[in-house]
């Protein structure tokens, strides 16, 4: 099992479907993360709209995912999910 680094940054994001992303992390890991629209509550509720969800970008300063309106998701839980669905292994382990 791959250990989650203390600080891990997303460097690239690709939208694969209405609620599915392929994420590339700074350590070289590439994995897919699928979200359930039920996860989007409160301030994140707009992300249940596929058109809004598809506007995801990487904040290169913070290494996290961001959407219009100041919505963001921390990279650490994304990494934990992505390594369960790896497309490419991390280049190194911390």
């Amino acid at each position: 099992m791959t250990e989650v680094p203390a600080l891990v940054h997303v460097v690239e994001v690709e939208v694969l479907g209405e609620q599915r992303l392929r994420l590339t992390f700074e350590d070289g890991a590439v994995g897919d993360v699928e979200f359930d629209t039920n996860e989007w509550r409160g301030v994140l509720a707009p992300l249940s709209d596929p058109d809004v969800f598809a506007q995801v970008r990487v904040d290169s300063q913070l290494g996290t995912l961001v959407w219009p309106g100041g919505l963001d998701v921390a990279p650490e839980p994304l990494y934990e999910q992505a390594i369960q669905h790896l497309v490419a292994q991390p280049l190194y382990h911390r």
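The chain has a mean pLDDT of 88. The chain is about 15% helix and 35% strand.
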